[in-house]
Amino acid sequence: MKVFMLGWEFPPFISGGLGTACYGLTKAMSAMGMDVLFVLPRPVDTSHATHVRMLTPKPTAGGRELEYAYDELQRVRFLAIESMLSPYTDPQQYQQRMEEVIRTKRTIAQPSAAEVQQRAFGTEHYSGDMFAEVHRYANAAVKLAMEEDFDVVHAHDWMTYPAGIAVAAVTGRPLVVHVHSTEFDRSGEHVNQMIYDIERRGMHAAAKVIAVSHLTRNIILSRYGVMGDKVEVIYNGVERNGDSRLMPRSGISSDEKIVLFLGRITMQKGPEYFLMAAKKVLEEMDNVKFVMAGSGDMMHRTIEMAAEMGIGHKVLFTGFLRGEDVERVYQMADLYVMPSVSEPFGIAPLEALNYDVPVLISKQSGVAEVLTHVLKVDFWDINEMANKIIAVLKYPPLQLTLREHGNFEVRRLRWQDAAEKCARVYSDIMVHV
Amino acid sequence: MSSVCFYFQVHQPFRLRHYTVFDKAPHYFDEFKNASICRKVANKCYLPTNRLLLKLIRKFGGQFRVSFSVTGVLLEQFHKYCPEVISTFDALAQTGCVEFLAETYYHSLSYLYSRTEFADQILKHIEMIEQLFGQTPRVFRNTELIYNNDLARTIESMDRFDGILAEGADHILGDRSPNFVYSPPDCEKTRLLLKNYRLSDDIAFRFSNRHWKEFPLMADKFARWINHVNGNGQVVNLFMDYETFGEHQWEDTGIFDFLSHLPYEVLKHPDNNFLTPSEVIERYPPVGVVDVPHIVSWADTERDLSAWLGNAMQSNALHEVYRLEGLVKQSQDEQLMADWRRLQTSDHFYYMCTKYFADGDVHKYFNPYDSPYDSYINYMNVLNNLRKRCMASVAESTAKSTA
Predict the structure, then answer these.
(1) Chain B residues within 8 A of A397 when measuring between CB atoms
(2) Is residue B261 part of a domain?
(3) Residues B380 and B320 sit within 8 Å (Cβ to Cβ)
(4) Among A410, A405, A400, which Cα is nearest to A351's?
(5) β-pair type (A288-293, A208-211)
(6) Which residues of A touch chain B, with CB atoms under 8 Å apart?
């Protein structure tokens, strides 16, 4: 079984849960003996040092092929198409970033300014707007696909659907689209029609649609008009990292409790509900700090809001965290809160449980379908959210029981099972083709 | 001879209302929910089953006999929400064929935490039964049939009871049969009646289970199983929740038909009869001593305390509620006392059980909360409010006395 997989991001170039999910899934597939050809738009701006070794970039028809080597991903080959696409952006942000890249390239790479100009504006590598870029990515993917042999096309989220449709059409292989989130999750009712159309087209063109939860499946059925028998639910898993050694807590005195928000600070994640609950908690108890780890388009608004509410000194913003910093912040936390307004799945609570942190999640999340040993609350129910936060901070037996059972429960959510279910989906549609 | 001894447990707790840390009002119980559950179960189970039993007792001219343990907290709710149920129980009591047993008024775990509270609650329950049904209980059953040697000695020392009911668990009986009367070690007059859990659970749990190889269970078949006891046992103790009839096993399972045919089928055999626990103790001498150093109960497959005391939250909540005893009694406030005692009902701790929680089984069915964690949080919030009230009350009275 060989899978042509179209992704957006992959560790360490991640900004959200999608990269983590792709990593976990492909790793489990690799371990099962499936071959995965992972195509992703590699962002041009790679200012972060990484542990990934890039092997012999060789020019191919579709752009540039870069092979990353991961010890644990022996059967996964990576094909990167140079592109500005990155997940969780909207067209305006794309435009801004685009301009920024061109500016820096001009100033830094002076010797070969002409070349940079050519690269930056050449239609081969960059496109002026995000939708054109999505289609350029599709073209490049088709060119790559023509040189490869595989059994099935697997596309993750909307940006890769046009590429998935194109590759499937050209090669005659069946298409699976994997819905990690929909436009309704990201934007509420103010959907971007063009993105919606792309999502809809992808779901209808696919032989099978994989949804990360029943919550998402319901949206796919009701909002995108897809037939129920075509949509399969496959829950995400979590990587088990065995050692949760305790590190010294720094900067925050040890008699202070820490309540953690970790995720993109955007409308979808409900940061304002977190703050409103924080304010209520602070009315009852004082020795608490609220840490908001992450960045996003609502970050500035959220910082202002904390100040306006008069709890600015109790809310700490860390910005986007990676690697060890994530680990450290989990180890400091007494409670992880995910107040998402709409969360198709939500891998972060699983990670929190992995680090022995009790978890409070909104009922409007897919992960609430699989977790029982967590606290659940409606995202809008500030009173109840504060009530539960206080209970966890005040009653050690509650923390203890949640931690014990939660850590045990999370071990049952394995990527291996997700990969096996994907394999079943593949073989189902291959019989039909 | 094989005698059938029916005992039905009749209980509903005072469920708590949703109570957050921000709530300050001293009203803890969900009037609406308790009323509607009480009325619902009365209509599905208590009223129709009481009527049926009354009919059967009359029909068989006193040969059909049963016993009940109705908790004080449920009797209070009957008074408030559906008093007609009490009159049907009273009608049963008047037949002379129905025995009422004693237990802790609040269906509490006080035996494990406070012996004075334990004794007080038993006396309070006896008083209520005397008042309502005109009989003084002579047989004791502890909450959820929690039992050990020490409990037997405690009950013996109260000098009011002839016997105790307990679970006929395999690990206390070994290869002996539950179908005899036994006595506890170091007790002179107290007798032990042990539940025949196989036959009891055939009715209470397996009756409507279509995967059970004996399904469907008919009265004649069940009577045959009773007949088998003849010759190697004297009494078949069928102990179960009264809600089995119509509530756990719905009417459409045929449970009422089963019950209405059972006396006839059992009495068909000339050696069979029905007895109440006191009559069993009077009729059959003990055949041996059953030693129970460790606690047994009738809950779950473990038959131990783990349903109420299986995790840190349960243990914490129980310790906290009994830690208030001194303060509550010091306050001498009747309302505080009543609230505190209602918080002792074992159901509150059962809701916090995390065993099998993920599998969603019987624990979930009886649980008004979405999760054991929610129930713990709610309970602790209520308890904190109660503590504050107690402290305020005590502070007030000391201020008065010094003034």
Answers:
(1) 311-313, 315-317, 376
(2) yes
(3) yes
(4) A410
(5) unpaired
(6) 280, 284, 372-376, 383-384, 386-388, 390-391, 394-395, 397-398, 400-402, 405, 409
**Whole-number Cα distances in Å, B296 to A117, B178, B373:** 82, 14, 26
CB pair distance less than 8 Å for B22 and A387: yes
- Say if the Cβ atoms of B21 and A384 lie within 8 Å: no
Contacts of A376 in chain B (CB under 8 A): 370-371
In this structure, how many other beta carbons lie within 10 angstroms of the beta carbon of residue B362?
A: 12
Tell me: do B234 and B349 sit in the same domain.
no
Query: DSSP letters along A176-245, please?
Result: EEEES--HHHHHTT---HHHHHHHHHHHHH-SEEEESSHHHHHHHHHHH---GGGEEE-----------P
Tokens of A90: 């909207």
ipTM of the complex, rounded to two decimals: 0.88
Q: Do B174 and B235 have their domain in common?
A: yes
C-alpha A159/C-alpha A166 separation (Å) is 13
Residue B240 binned pLDDT confidence (cut-offs 50, 70, 90): very high
Of A120-124, A252-256, B74-78, which has the strongest mean pLDDT?
Answer: B74-78
Which two three-digit tokens encode residue B249?
A: 């096993």
Domain count, chain A: 2
- Asked whether the beta carbons of residue B313 and residue A397 sit closer than 8 angstroms, the reply is yes
CB atoms within 10 A of CB A199: 25
Same domain, yes or no: B259 and B370: no
Q: Is residue B298 part of a domain?
A: no
Claim to verify: residue A219 and residue A288 sit in the same structural domain: no
pTM of the model: 0.86
* Structure confidence at residue A87 as a pLDDT band (50, 70, 90): low
Upper half-sphere CA count for residue A335 (Cβ side, 13 Å): 31
- Answer yes or no: do A375 and B374 touch at CB < 8 A: yes
Query: Of B225, B249, B283, which residue is a domain's last?
Result: B283
Q: A231 and A83 in one domain?
A: yes
Residue A10 shares a structural domain with residue A145: yes
Distance CA B303, CA B377 (A): 27
Report the Cα B124 to chain-centroid distance in Å: 16
Question: Can you tell me whether residue A370 is helix, strand or coil?
Answer: coil
Q: For the CA atoms of B194, B198, B204, B207, what is the dihedral angle to 10 degrees?
A: -160
Question: In this model, does residue B72 exceed pLDDT 60?
Answer: yes
B289 occurs within a structural domain: no
Report the C-alpha gap between B318 and A51 in whole angstroms.
Answer: 52
How many domains does one find in chain B?
2
Range of the domain at A357: 257-410
- Which 3 state secondary structure label does DSSP give A329? helix
Query: Is A243 a member of any domain?
Result: no
Contact A390 B21 (CB under 8 A): yes
Residues of chain B contacting A390 with CB distance shorter than 8 Å: 21
Whether B302 is in a domain gets the answer no
Mean pLDDT over the full length of chain B: 94
Choosing from B144, B243, B265, B279, which is the catalytic residue? B144
Q: Does B373 contact A402 at a Cβ distance shorter than 8 Å?
A: yes
Asked if residue A352 and residue A226 are part of one domain, the reply reads no
pLDDT at A35 over 60: yes
- For residue A301, the distance in angstroms to the closest alpha carbon of chain B comes to 28
For residue B243, indicate whether it is catalytic: no
- A244 lies in some domain: no
B21, A284: Cβ pair inside 8 Å?
A: yes
Residues B315, B198: one domain? no
> Helix, strand, or coil here: A427?
helix
Question: Which residues on A lie below 8 Å from B317 (Cβ)?
Answer: 397
Name, in order, each residue with C-beta under 8 angstroms of B140's C-beta and a sequence gap of 6 or more: B101, B102, B103, B122, B155, B161, B163, B164, B165
CATH of the domain at A382: 3.40.50.2000
- Residue B367 belongs to domain spanning: 307-397
Residue of A369, A381, A387 best to disrupt the B interface, most CBs of B under 10 A: A387
